[in-house]
Amino acid sequence: MPTGALPDHSASSKSSDAGELSLDPADWEEFRATAHRALDDAIDFLRTVRERKVWRPVPEEVRSALAAPVPTEGQPLEEVYRQFQDLILPYATGNIHPRFYGWVHGTGLAGGIVAEMLAASMNANCGGRDHGAIYVERTVVDWCKKQFDFPAEASGLLVSGTSMANLIGLGVARNSLPGANVRRDGVGDYPRELTGYASAEAHESAAKAFEIMGLGGAALRKIPVDEALRIRMDVLREKIAEDRRAGLEPFCVIGSAGTVNTGAIDDLDALATLCENEGLWFHVDGAFGALGVLSDSVRPMLKGIERADSIAFDFHKWMFVQYDAGCILVRDGAKHRAAYSMRPPYLNHLQRGLAGGGDWPCDFGPELSRSFRALKIWFAMKEHGTRKLGRMIDQNCAQAQYLRGRILEHLELELLAPVQLNIVCFRFHPPGLDDPRLLDRLNEELVADLQESGVAVPSTTRIGGRLAVRVAITNHRSRMVDFDILLAAMLEAGGRRIAGSAAV
Amino acid sequence: MPTGALPDHSASSKSSDAGELSLDPADWEEFRATAHRALDDAIDFLRTVRERKVWRPVPEEVRSALAAPVPTEGQPLEEVYRQFQDLILPYATGNIHPRFYGWVHGTGLAGGIVAEMLAASMNANCGGRDHGAIYVERTVVDWCKKQFDFPAEASGLLVSGTSMANLIGLGVARNSLPGANVRRDGVGDYPRELTGYASAEAHESAAKAFEIMGLGGAALRKIPVDEALRIRMDVLREKIAEDRRAGLEPFCVIGSAGTVNTGAIDDLDALATLCENEGLWFHVDGAFGALGVLSDSVRPMLKGIERADSIAFDFHKWMFVQYDAGCILVRDGAKHRAAYSMRPPYLNHLQRGLAGGGDWPCDFGPELSRSFRALKIWFAMKEHGTRKLGRMIDQNCAQAQYLRGRILEHLELELLAPVQLNIVCFRFHPPGLDDPRLLDRLNEELVADLQESGVAVPSTTRIGGRLAVRVAITNHRSRMVDFDILLAAMLEAGGRRIAGSAAV
């Protein structure tokens, strides 16, 4: 590393340092000792996670202690750290644990602790300008473009997650509409009402993006799904034609690459062809499923994703990177830039110096202040390599099939959806108990029982109106045995509730 | 910390661990050694920052090395870290340095390294659910509400920065419009065109929010400023009346609490009264200035901010917290929730278990995946206390006045705007050189000279059409002497350029 020593200008000073404040440690060696102790504890916390409960409720006295008055006076870092250890660390979400399968939460990586610590020491603002972090983000985006066979002129931006990525990608679609300047004049001036399309199983973040973009949530049409829970192409075609006949303007279709409920993947190739023929923007919500391109078993199911106009996905799910880390890729980088770039005088771009360096990330999205989240992704991809990351995805899918098989062995358990990827939806359904509302309540209680026991964390959803226990596996710490433990605990809790009938 | 040991269910397993993958370190002690080495280096990097150049350009060979092919195979963490040290760390943005004054970048805190490392070990997803991190975020938001005298029913959300905070706050204003369901039906169905108002010196992120929200950037009217660069109330009143006469629907006014160019603070009290009388939403963009409420010298200038409907600000600027960390506060929490909350079945809220816990952060904004950024803010406020943080703000303002005084001593330097807060806009203007375009080019080159020399980093903007060297001080490491060094280097570089006239 270059040392870059500087000439001493301080001789010209008229001032004195006396009494000047700083927030740096008064004693750097004391700071160093506290930081190393915290690091050791963090590593131990991670290494011993399997020995602990997945999750525990935050006790009332801890909540009270956290709801402390505004700290007007400071206290030693060591003391703040001690409070963290007592009040916060024991009550983590639980997703670092091998038996966390709730929602779609990635596990995180040990190397991510190092990457985040280093990013914090640099404290880069990645909104723009010409510095190392910007090149790292470009590299990570380029690596992603290659995974999806996107062309060189494609663009990309790291974001907090797919909710933001969907908003940005759909914003490019809206702002790129020909024959109007939606960016300047708004959608109210657009001659026809704009509509978009997604399956009824699509994630609601797409509808939220429609709301935020001023199109209204109702302008996103929910198309029914087939038996594999994929968008029905025939109904989609008909709905687009119907909206056109009604004088509306269909402008985009959102394909799901791994639905949130069951991991279903729409027929992306058919959607790409339809969008091409109909002149519609093809956006893919691939929150967790898109990174299946890294896996030999999932890649074939994603055929057509390489034809998308924009792809949204997360690194913190199936690449296991620390929260938060998502990405939006746009095939036509010029349209992406035109949708968001804004360079007022205080963001003027210069030929040289720190204000140089070509495109800035703020040219491609709403954010001007951006953390250096590229670093943890760069670390993850380099330390583990895309092949092993792909094999981890394979393993999670195999675990889902294993769990499916074990569920089918039990008369008291009922599978509620096909297992196509890494998600298993099922329920406890003892023979003879057929009241739908009772079954829903029973399974809701069982999920809470499991969570509160600390043995495992599934979550719930609804499949065909029925409450499902949902196990979503984006976890590199899970072993096959963990799914045995999950089922044993569930059958035990179910049996207990059935025996003590009042509790059902 | 409770140990939470678990019963052993593994006896029931049908599976074997043989051949199962994980991304955990093969050797935890080797990982520990690398992590500690990285931490020591990070601390040294911070402690010795004053001895290094503020910024250095990324050399061509480093750019090439970073633009490496996709890493298909992994490599040891130690080796990835070595590459980080060679290719990334030396090329930081520079804002941790005592002579970084470009744009408005905060310095970061040593304790922030510890907080980020701990957050990475927990890997919480703060979109929702019932776990420790959520309570920490609530506490931080509550502390902020108290700083602005906001009522108990106010709500808040941590975000990446004020660009996002502006978007969210203005989104609440739009979605709360009476007599329509903008969220469901979009702005196209709204009977009249919606308009908003901000000063010509307001940050462009407000206009970008209007673009994203489908209102169109042109719907945000730019109102001229007075000599102190504050919004002109008379013109504002007239413009609102004029738009109403034209059949438009004014719905919000954005007050600036510290403009990006000069730190001007609009008359927030007058704006609050106007908004009350006119029935408009009063949003304050206080990116860096709003936290002036912590400072005895700045607080009086912010009178009226406590009457806002929503306030947007950053912790990574004038609270020096690591990137990224901003906040939106909304006086009427119910309106805030109604604008964004969405609970599909897979986000169902339960009475107990991990899916409990009342309001979730995802109910208040577009993001469902959210990092645990509350932790670094909690650490900063507790370690340093609000009083000392306020005194740091005072010190930065005093430094701006000191710099102003020194500029006035030099015939070759010209002040371009009043110094009201922590920003000094000036230029090198040697007597006799009066060609406006030449002066602009000269000062642009001088800023790049300074940046490339590594002595100091100011940035540029335009004040009244003239290119200004802009020094924005949100830096807890700066001492008075640093401003002497900045001016000495600038005068030296200016003299050199004037002497070698070809270079001007």
Query: Tell me about the biggest sheet of chain A?
Result: 7 strands, mixed
Classify the secondary structure makeup of chain A into a structural class. Answer: alpha/beta
Give the termini separation of chain A.
66 Å
Number of domains of chain A: 2
Helix and strand succession of chain A?
A: HHHHHEHHEHEHEHEEEHHEEHEEH
Describe this entry's structure for a reader:
Two copies of one chain form a homodimer. With 504 residues, chain A is α/β, with parallel strands linked by helices. Chain A folds into two domains: 125-371, 3-Layer(aba) Sandwich (Aspartate Aminotransferase, domain 2); 389-503, Alpha-Beta Complex (Aspartate Aminotransferase, domain 1). Helix content of chain A is 39%, strand content 12%. Chain A has helices at 28-47, 60-66, 77-87, 110-122, 132-147, 162-175, 182-185, 205-212, 233-245, 268-278, 333-340, 374-408, 436-453, 480-499; strands at residues 155-159, 194-199, 220-223, 249-256, 281-285, 310-314, 326-330, 413-415, 423-428, 459-463, 466-472. In chain A, the strands form two sheets. A seven-stranded mixed β-sheet of chain A has the order 1-7-6-5-4-2-3, sandwiched between helices. Chain A has a four-stranded antiparallel β-sheet with strand order 8-9-11-10. In chain A, helix 6 packs across helix 8. Chain A is globular, with a radius of gyration of 26 Å. The model of chain A is unreliable at 1-5 and 7-16 (pLDDT under 50).
